[in-house]
Structures are given as C-alpha cells and as structure tokens.
C-alpha cells in the first residue's frame, strides 16, 4: 500500500505541473491584460500602459513569466495579485473557508438526500420514491444553476422575504450563527439541487446493478428480508461507484461554485477565480488552479485508499491501478 | 455517522466565524451596537488595491472605493458644476498656468492628523518619483516638471505648499482650476505621508498600511475581503459632515442580482447611481421603488474604427452615413438618449456646426470614391451589445459593407483594437465636460487606439484648444476641430445616453446622477 501510494504521488507531480502549464498558456492566449481594462473608463496616457505592464512583469516572454512563477511556487510563494496587490496565498486563505462552508453544506445536503432517495428508487422501482427521484434529477440536470439562483432569490427573497438575497453576513462581519445560517440557506440550496441529479442517478443505477448480482440472490435465498438485503448487501456492493461520485465533489467543495458565489456575492474561491479571470489577474487564477489541482490529485489518491478499505477484493501493486 | 456529520458541520461553521476577512480588529458581536445603521451597497465588479495610485486597471470600480476612503479636492455634480471638498475654494494664478487651492483646515486623516498642503506636496512628489512604480501616476502628467507618464523629469515639479493650507499646482499648459478638476479630480487623492516613515519610493506600494488604509475621506476602513467585500465606518470628523450611518458594507455581486436585492430590501444602493434599463425600471416601479430620470448625459457611445485597416476617410464617412443612429439609440437606450454627430457633451457649452443624418445613397457614393473593394470587416462587441451590433451589421450591409461580428469580453475587445485584430468595436464611456475629454487621450502617440497614421494635425488642434484662454476663441477652435474630425472620421460618435436611477426608500440624501463622475456624496447619506 505504502509503495503504491508513493508511486501514485510520483506520477501526480508531472500531472500537477502539466495542469499549471496548460492553465498558464490558456490564460495568456486569451487576448488582453489587466491594463486593457482601463479602456472603457479612460484611456491611458502615453507610454503608461507599457509602464504598468513592465511593473507587473507582463513585458517578459511567456517562458520567462512561467519560469518565474514556478520558481516562486517552489519557494512556497503563490505570487502577488495584480489587482489587489496582496499575496495570493492570503487571498486564498480568506476565501477557502467560506467556500468549504457553502459548497460543503450544499454537497452534504445533496448526499443526505440523494443516497436514501437513490436506494429507495432502486429498491422500489416505479414507486413514488422513484418518481420523486426522477423529477429531482430532471430539475437538477435540466435547470441551469444561474437560473436556480435567480428563481430562488425571486421566490424566497423578493416574494416571500424569508431569506437574504446576497452576502454572508448582514452587517459585513460575523454576528452569530443564526445570521450566517440565514445567508447560507439559499446558495447552499442551489448547490445542493445542482449536485443532486448525478448523485441520485449514480446511487440508483449502482444499487440496481448490485441487486442483479448472484450474492443478492443468495442472500434472498437465505431468507433475509428486503430491507436487510438492500442495506447490508446491495448498498454495500454499490458503495464504490457512489463513493467515487461523492468524493469527486471534494475539489468542487474546496474550489467553490463560481456561478453561485458570484450571484450571491459569497466571498469564496469561486468568486475569487471569476474576478481573477475577468480582470486578467494571472497570479490569482494560477493560485486557485494550484489549490484545485492539488485537491483533484489528492482526492484521486484518497479514492484509491478508500476503495481498498471498502472492497477487500481491491489489492494494490506499485505502479498499477487496483484490481 | 450522524455524529461525524454534526461535528463536521459545527466545525465548519465555527471556522466560518473565524474567516480571516478582517485586516484590523472587527468589533465582536458583544461590541456591536444593537441598532447599528448599516448601508448595504452593491457593486458588480471588484476594485483593485486600496492604495489609490496602485490600480493597474484604473477602473471606475476602484475610483468609487477610493472616493470613500480618501479625500478629493472637489465634488463634481452630474451637470459639471463643482462643490468644495478637501479644497474650500480655488483660483487661477500665474496667467492661467497655475491653480491655488485653499484647503479645508478642519480636514484630518482618520488617525487625527490634520491634512495640510504639505501632505499633498509629499504625495505628488512621491508618486511622481521615477523609482515609484505607481500605475496611477499618469494623472500627474498635466503638472509641470513631469513627462508624459507623469514621472518627475528633474525640473521644478508643479506642486507647492504656498502656505500650510494653500496648495499650488502648476500646469504644463494654461488650465483653469475648473477644467483641471473636471478632468482630474477623480484621480487626485492625498495620502497619509506622515505614516510612510522612511520607506523608499520603490517600496511604497507594498506597505502594510494599504491593507488597512488611513485616508481622510468620509469613511474609515474596517475590514476587507479583497475583491469581494469592504466594510467601512462613518467618519464622524469629516468636515462636510459625518455620513448618516454606522457602517457601509460594499459587496461585489453579479449584475443580475443588484436590482432584485434592492427590491427585496437587502441592498440600499448599488453603483453607479442605481442605474437601470428602461425594462427593469418598470419592474422597479411595480415593486414600489422610485425611478429618477437623469437629466444630463452619463454615457457616450461610439463606434471605434481602425484607421489602418479602414484607411480611406471616405469609407469611414460612408459608415457614419450608413448607420441609422436614431434607431440604434432607440434600441439601446429605449428613448433615454440623443444621437450625436460629435463627442461634445450636450449641456457643457461647447457646440459644433456638424450635423448628422442617414443617407444611404451618399454612403454608397463615398464607398465607391473611397475604393471599398468588398472586404469583410470584423466588428467586436461585448455580449450585452450583440443586438446593437446585429442592427449595425444590417444597416452597413444595406450600403454594401460586409461586417462579421465577434462577441468578446471588454479586455479582449480593447486589446483587439489596440493590436489591430478588429476593424471596429462598440464602446461606451462616461462623458466629460471638457471639449477634448474624449479625443486627446485617444489620439496620442502613446494611445493611438484608432491607428491614425498622422497624429500631427490632432496634436496641433489639442495644443491650440488647450492654450486658448479666451472662451470665444476656444469655442471657435473647437468648431474647427469638430469639422476636421467630421472629415477624417477616425471614430463614429453615436449617441449620448441618460440614465434611469432606482432609488431605495431605505437611504436618503443620495445624489444619484453624480455617481457618473465616480464620486458619491456619502456625507449626505442618511440611513433612518
């Protein structure tokens, strides 16, 4: 196991740097820089744009810029935001926890709803549970997150006046759990609904597949009741694909939800990434990319470990995948 | 499992409470007054650094933030009239080459230190130091002793503390104090130079001070989540009066949620001036909000042209004649705008005998004369103007000009015009009161965004107009320049638009229209 993990870690390193290189190139291939944003408001004075570009280091060649960024990264420095002038690591530190809170709550809610509903839908096909699961999946897959945000705001903030339409706190800083929870409900609800479809469908189909296995027939032949067969055997057999779906949400939880955070003015990683892209703030976008890439790679590693714990048939060998 | 979930949730909530958003200590709930008056302010784009001369984008979203934390010399109304702010009065000096500003002696930084003329002198001296990398330095290029980028040349710098509370600015060309303020006021701020210590000019931008800035504006810094939320407190000692609220919470959020949040009562105001489209204004009225019709133009629309790829002036003039500005303006402003033949802002006193009317036949004749060979031009626009671009495409097609539309973001559009990737682009700007507000900075060697081959005639007009002290002489020169522009047509003026402002009943005293000058009278705002 240890050798296997070390092997996976070693292969993850070039993948990580590959991701950063691709994102870096894509960012710089997009036309315009932060200096061009002044165009709408006022034109720059003579020579000023070039001077600002030189100040930000944008006048260097792309390989030189990437090499400088990489060297800083290896020293543990994610650079300084062009726009705010603050260290990117400090910006990320400010934004990670709100994202964890928002997306984490949304995903937890989605898991809490999707797992039992998916199991029930598989257990009792064409029942009310199955229909509810299908309807929820349809809404989750079919309605864009942006529309869900606006519909939620219209219904719960404008019409009913129950929930705040934006922000994390009413007065700009923490003033009690109640205030935070009220602000959390709508955006977390949207994250939950957006994630429900995949989880329900995955749980239902994995359980249905497990129900057709020989060991389920054996369990039934031994006289176990339906509930025991479903919970102790079928669901356990379906756990690996379900776990995969659930755990692949981890990078999403850390990286935040761009649309939801943007619409609700939630100070998370998603909105940081969005404003970074919009303002061509390359160090910020690269910093968020580093965090998300690490989360994805570590999640994959975590999944491999969990597969072994959940399914004793999974054995590890250095340099090859489970099996 | 349940226990673990509960534990995780509790832990996350606790962590959220400890989010390191604050750069300075934020009052704990125990210290927060029970009936705190909070003004909730929405902004659709993030600001840059809180150091006012360290804004690489130089956007209005940053300026509107600096306006609260730092003081400016004057307050500019939407109609171009000026009110005292850091300066209580001003007058011209040295034959029009200088302006004297009498500073408000009651003005003080948020740490209590009085603001003197010496602070202004030190600020400008420091920012114009060639070793200081301030991106916002170009604002000082109007002062004597600076080069085109605003860096000090070593000659006598055009800033002086004549008396402790009298500031003298000396210009390169004769400039009235009013013209200077209309042009530059929103970019001139005084810094707390007494807090900069022995910092070298090259290090000034990266000081810790800018994480919790001390200004002399109407609001004090409380906390910031950079690019997302800024919490400010009322400055009770602001000379023009303490803002009538305890806190101002500025949140960056999507445009789509600004009006709904105002209707829901979760926002008290959004920048700039609660501006709203005609369709949304009706929605706001139905929701019981008051909608104010702006009386002075707050937007100028133009069709940017690439004079290198559209090299013939006849072809450019043909495009001008081919466009039905009336219908374009109607489509865009829903009746809240007027087509124009010039970039001269209506109501400023400057006029030109240049008129516009659509003439398809004459446009075709000019195209032939200009040797248009049927090439396809690339028209760039942002997503919200794609409908407008499609209309333009149809109208240009009527005279035989083929146009391909590319919908891109703002930065891509401007950089595409700069590097010549696009032949034309639709842009809008906040109009200025001066006759050269639009042309001077866009038709210069350093920012020749229209790719004009010979800028010499333009430079000559600029110099003559700026140097004309007599109003009648200046007006005559402006007329000549506008006629020259009509002949050359380096860009196509489209229309001036007026804004509709949605007013929330939850805050009183807001001067909505003046926000177009990136200043807001927060000292008059009252949250009942």
UniProtKB/TrEMBL annotation, chain A:
CC per GO annotation: plasma membrane
Transmembrane annotation, as ranges: 9-30, 100-123, 135-160, 180-200, 237-264, 284-307
Keywords noted in UniProt: Cell membrane, Membrane, Transmembrane, Transmembrane helix, Transport
InterPro entries the UniProt entry points to: BPD_transp_1_N, MetI-like, MetI-like_sf
Highest taxon of source: Bacteria
Membrane topology, from the record: Multi-pass membrane protein
Domain ABC transmembrane type-1 as annotated: residue spans: 96-303
Gene3D superfamilies in alphabetical order: MetI-like (1.10.3720.10)
Compartments (UniProt record): Cell membrane
Pfam families linked: BPD_transp_1, BPD_transp_1_N
UniProt-listed GO biological process terms: transmembrane transport
Keyword Phosphoprotein: no
Family stated for the protein in its record: Belongs to the binding-protein-dependent transport system permease family.
Protein name: ABC transporter permease
Automatic annotation (TrEMBL), chain B:
All residue ranges annotated as the Solute-binding protein family domain in the record: 86-433
BP GO terms, sorted: peptide transport
GO cellular component, one term: periplasmic space
Signal peptide positions (record): 1-21
Gene Ontology molecular-function annotations: peptide transmembrane transporter activity
Keyword Signal included in the entry's annotation: yes
Key words of the record: Signal
The UniProt record lists the keyword Signal: yes
Record-linked InterPro entries: Peptide/Ni-bd (IPR030678), SBP_5 (IPR039424), SBP_5_dom (IPR000914)
Protein name: ABC transporter substrate-binding protein
Taxonomic classification: Bacteria, Bacillati, Bacillota, Clostridia, Eubacteriales
């Amino acid at each position: 196991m240890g050798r296997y993990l070390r092997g996976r870690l070693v292969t993850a390193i070039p993948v990580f740097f590959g991701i950063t290189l691709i994102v870096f190139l894509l960012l710089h291939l997009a036309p315009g820089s932060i200096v061009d944003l002044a165009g709408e408001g006022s034109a720059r004075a003579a020579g000023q744009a070039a001077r600002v570009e030189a100040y930000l280091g944008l006048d260097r060649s792309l390989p030189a810029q990437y090499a400088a960024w990489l060297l800083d990264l290896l020293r543990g420095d994610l650079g300084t935001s062009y726009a705010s002038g603050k260290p990117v690591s400090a910006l990320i530190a400010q934004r990670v926890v709100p994202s964890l809170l928002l997306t984490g709550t949304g995903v937890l809610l989605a898991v809490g709803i999707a797992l039992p509903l998916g199991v029930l839908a598989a257990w009792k096909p064409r029942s009310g549970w199955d229909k509810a699961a299908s309807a929820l999946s349809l809404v989750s897959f079919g309605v864009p997150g942006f529309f869900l945000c606006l519909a939620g705001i219209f219904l719960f903030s404008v019409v009913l006046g129950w929930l705040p339409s934006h922000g994390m706190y009413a007065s700009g800083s923490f003033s009690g759990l109640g205030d935070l929870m009220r602000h959390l409900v709508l955006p977390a609800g949207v994250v939950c609904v957006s994630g429900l479809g995949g989880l329900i469908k995955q749980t239902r189909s994995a359980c249905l597949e497990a129900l057709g296995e020989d060991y389920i027939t054996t369990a039934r032949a031994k006289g176990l009741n339906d509930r025991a067969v479903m919970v102790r055997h079928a669901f356990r057999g379906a756990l690996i694909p379900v776990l995969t779906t659930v755990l692949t949400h981890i990078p999403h939880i850390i990286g935040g939800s761009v649309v939801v955070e943007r619409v609700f003015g939630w100070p998370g990683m998603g909105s940081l990434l969005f404003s970074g892209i919009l303002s061509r703030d390359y160090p910020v976008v690269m910093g968020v990319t580093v965090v998300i890439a690490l989360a994805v790679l570590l999640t994959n590693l975590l999944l491999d470990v969990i597969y072994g714990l959940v399914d004793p048939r999974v054995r590890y060998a250095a340099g090859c995948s489970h099996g | 499992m349940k226990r673990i979930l509960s534990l995780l949730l509790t832990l996350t909530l606790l962590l959220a409470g400890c989010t390191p958003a604050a750069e300075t200590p934020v009052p704990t709930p125990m210290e927060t007054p029970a009936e705190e008056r909070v003004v909730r302010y929405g902004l659709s784009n993030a600001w840059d650094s809180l150091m006012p001369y360290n804004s690489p984008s130089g956007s209005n979203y940053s300026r509107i933030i600096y306006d609260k934390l730092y003081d400016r010399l004057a307050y500019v109304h939407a109609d171009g009239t000026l009110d005292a702010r850091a300066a209580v009065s001003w007058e011209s000096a040295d034959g029009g080459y200088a302006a004297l500003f009498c500073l408000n002696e009651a003005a003080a930084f948020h740490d209590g230190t009085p603001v003197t003329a010496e602070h202004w002198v030190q600020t400008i001296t420091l920012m114009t130091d060639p070793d200081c990398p301030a991106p916002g330095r170009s604002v000082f290029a109007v002062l004597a002793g600076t080069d085109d980028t605003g860096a000090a040349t070593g000659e006598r710098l055009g800033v002086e503390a004549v008396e402790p509370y009298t500031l003298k600015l000396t210009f390169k060309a004769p400039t009235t104090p009013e013209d200077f303020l209309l042009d530059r006021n929103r970019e001139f701020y005084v810094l707390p130079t007494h807090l900069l210590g022995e910092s070298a000019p090259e290090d000034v931008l990266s000081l810790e001070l800018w994480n919790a800035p001390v200004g002399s504006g109407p609001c004090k810094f409380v906390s910031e989540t950079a690019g997302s939320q800024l919490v400010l407190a009322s400055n009770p000692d602001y000379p023009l009066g303490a803002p009538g609220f305890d806190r101002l919470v500025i949140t960056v959020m999507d445009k789509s949620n600004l009006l709904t949040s105002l209707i829901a009562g979760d926002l008290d105001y959004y920048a700039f001036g609660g501006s709203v489209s005609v369709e949304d204004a009706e929605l706001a009225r139905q929701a019981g909000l008051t909608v104010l019709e702006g009386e002075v133009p707050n937007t100028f629309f133009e069709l940017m042209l690439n004079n290198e790829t559209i090299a013939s002036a006849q072809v450019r003039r043909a495009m001008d004649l081919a466009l039905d500005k009336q219908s374009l303006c109607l489509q865009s402003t829903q009746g809240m705008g007027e087509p124009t033949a010039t970039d001269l802002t209506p109501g400023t006193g400057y006029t030109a005998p240049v008129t516009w009317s659509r003439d398809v036949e004459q446009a075709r004749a000019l195209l032939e004369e200009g040797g248009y060979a049927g090439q396809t031009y690339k028209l760039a626009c942002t997503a919200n103007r794609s409908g407008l671009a499609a209309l333009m495409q149809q109208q240009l097609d009527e005279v035989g000009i083929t146009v391909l539309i590319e919908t891109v973001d703002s930065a891509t559009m401007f950089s595409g015009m700069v590097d010549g990737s696009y032949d034309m682009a639709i842009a809008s700007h906040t109009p200025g009161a001066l006759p050269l507000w639009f042309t001077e900075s866009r038709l210069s060697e350093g920012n020749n965004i229209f790719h004009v081959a010979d800028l010499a005639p333009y430079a000559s007009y600029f110099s003559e107009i700026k140097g004309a002290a007599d109003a009648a002489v200046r007006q005559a020169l402006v007329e000549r320049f506008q006629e020259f522009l009509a002949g050359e047509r380096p860009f196509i003026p489209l229309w001036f638009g007026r804004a509709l402002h949605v007013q929330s009943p939850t805050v009183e005293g807001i001067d909505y229209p003046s926000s177009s000058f990136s200043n807001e009278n927060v000292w008059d705002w009252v949250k009942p």
